[in-house]
Amino acid sequence: MLDINFIRNNQALVEKSVHEKGYSSDISAILKLDDERKALLLEVEALRRQRNEVSDQMKGGKPEPELLEKARSVKAELAEKEPKLTEIEKQLKEKISRVPNIIFDDVPLGGEECSVEVSSWGGKPEGGVDHLDYALSRDWVDFERGAKVAGAKFYYLKNGLALLENALLQFGLKKVTEHGFNFMTVPDMVSSKVLEGCGFNPRSSEQSDEYYIEGEDLAMIATAEMPLTGYHMDEIIDEKNLPLCYAGYSACFRKEAGTYGKHTRGLFRVHQFNKLEMYVFCLPEKSKEMHEEIRKIEEEIWQELGIPYRVINIAAGDLGAPAAKKYDIEYWSPVDQKYRELTSCSNCTDFQARSLNIRVRRNDGSVEVLHTLNGTAISLARTMVAVLENYGQKDGKLKLPEALREYFGGATEI
Question: In this structure, is residue 10 part of a structural domain?
Answer without folding.
Answer: yes
